Amino acid sequence: RGGGSPSSDFKGFTLLMPAVSVGNVGQLAIDLVISTFNMTKVGYFYTDCLVPMVGNNPYATAEENSMELSINAEVYSLPSKKLVVLQIRSPFIKNKYRPFCQTLLSWVKSSKCDRVIVLSSSHAYQCDDEQLLGTPLRYLLTPDLEKAVGGLMQELNWKEMEKVAAYPGINDKVLHIPGGGITKLLFTESCSKGIQMAVLLKFCSEGDNIPDAFALVNYLNEWHQLIKSEVNTSSQWKIPSSWRLLFGNGLPPALF
Amino acid sequence: MATFFGEVVVAPSRAGVDEEEEAREETPEDREIRRELEKKREIDIFWTLKSGSTTESSADEPVVCSKFIVAIGRNAAAFLSSFILDSVCWEVVGVVKLWNEWCRTSSTTNVLPTDSFCLFYRLISDPTVWLCQCSCYVAEDQQFQWLEKVFGRMRKEGLQVTILSTCPVADYKTQESTLTLPSPFLKALKTKEFKEQVCCPLLEQPNIVRDLPAA
């Protein structure tokens, strides 16, 4: 804890983090993970790359634990599941997303995290006809992680994020994640740095993205089994108290 | 922006980063333009800690400060002007010069209440007590710089910081409608190191503070 990046040793841990992306789905999904497992805050990033914000504890369950301050980039851990989670709560300042990615990936290396999972989303309106049918969930694996878990993805019957033509009519295909924020940059940088990274993303649009967050966190759960997948997995995730009033205040009685 | 029924409007995404725009490689000209803009957006602080002379902030000894009250925004700055500041007990010790799309401040300390300015004052009878009136808007990319340059000047041990700011009642998230809420009202955030009694209720989730007060 303290100024600078948290310099704890997370050897063997999986880092779970969101991309600030369309519908904030990754961030909402991370909120569900932190809230459900009552994760302990272990540090924060003191960074000039994100818009500053502060508030009281977003995962408060009672008066006693409601008074801890919370800022824009905080790290939580759950040693029992070898999980360390980064939550990002505000957008990137213009031109600062690249330095943030660099700082983040060098922290991943120095803290010895085993692998990184990025929860993200992409604009649904960019889906082609084929993508509109079937599941809206996709995954990506860096080559280093592909070697370790590629087979598992086949067993789970997951769909890999399709590459698209760089220009209409050109056969050369590239990775394109519209609305994904820093997802593509993190992924391509991790490929070249030999970091084991997986991206789990959902096609969605802006609106009430709570169902999208549940879908994404359940998708993660198919792989990592954080909670037992019984009949109704969704009901086992605990919604944090800060999700209250996402769509505005109560109405003035004088309106009616 | 008015739209007619059936018109497709591209909504601004909360993702923030426009991938197409950001994915372009930066040309040397782009880099030069960006550097010039960054230089223009740099914050300069002029300290007048020794009476008379005005010098740019330099790597001097950090100043001992016991209390630092920062008023951010016109309302908070006006509060300090009306109830606390006067030319007998307080002296100006610093001024911030900055530029952004919303406002420009100058290095003059002779300001009108309607100007945009950011001034630092010190209590003459106890020079460890400082005040800051910041009525100008400090942009997102300047907030960290402001923070580092201001607090970099002060010794942090034994320092108590109080930040005064205002927000529109309409932004306050509450179960009832804000129309019936008695206003104005006070809410506070405090660090766990702050042991004194707070004079008003704490800010409940999901309300947050952003920008310079948050920084």
Which percent range fits the helix content of chain B?
10-25%
Report strand % of chain B.
Answer: 15-25%
Summing up helix and strand content along with how strands pair, one would put the structural category of chain B as alpha/beta
Tally the helices of chain B: what do you get? 5
Low-confidence stretches of chain B: 51-59
Number of strands of chain B: 8
Overall pLDDT confidence of chain A? 90
Q: How many discrete domains of chain A? A: 1
CATH topology of one domain in chain B: Rossmann fold
Oligomer: heterodimer
Keywords (chain A): Chaperone, Nucleus, Phosphoprotein
Subunit structure (chain A): Forms a heterodimer with PSMG1. The PSMG1-PSMG2 heterodimer interacts directly with the PSMA5 and PSMA7 proteasome alpha subunits.
Family (chain A): Belongs to the PSMG2 family.
InterPro entries (chain A): Proteasome_assmbl_chaperone_2 (IPR019151), Proteasome_assmbl_chp_2_euk (IPR016562), PSMG2_sf (IPR038389)
3D architecture notes:
The complex is a heterodimer of chains A (256) and B (215). Chain A is an alpha/beta fold. Chain A has one domain (14-228, 237-246): Rossmann fold (3-Layer(aba) Sandwich), CATH 3.40.50. Chain A is built from six helices and eleven strands. Chain A has helices spanning 25-36, 97-110, 129-132, 143-156, 183-193, 210-224, and strands spanning 14-18, 40-44, 53-56, 69-71, 73-78, 83-88, 115-123, 137-141, 164-165, 173-174, 197-204. In chain A, strands 2-5-6-1-7-11-8 form a seven-stranded mixed beta sheet, sandwiched between helices. In chain A, a hairpin with a 7-residue loop joins strand 9 (164-165) and strand 10 (173-174). In chain A, helix 1 crosses helix 6. The longest helix of chain A is centred in the C-terminal third of the chain and has 15 residues, at 210-224. Chain A is globular and about 60 Å long. The model of chain A is unreliable at 1-6 (pLDDT under 50). With 215 residues, chain B is α/β, with parallel strands linked by helices. Chain B has a domain at 40-48 and 62-104 and 111-167: 3-Layer(aba) Sandwich (Rossmann fold), CATH 3.40.50.10900. Helices cover 20% and strands 20% of the residues of chain B. A seven-stranded mixed beta sheet of chain B has the order 2-1-4-5-6-3-7, with helices on one face. Chain B is globular and about 65 Å long. Chain B starts with 18 loop residues before the first helix and ends with a helix. The chains are: A alpha/beta (256), B alpha/beta (215). At the A-B interface, strand 3 of A face helix 1, helix 4, strand 8 and helix 5 of B.
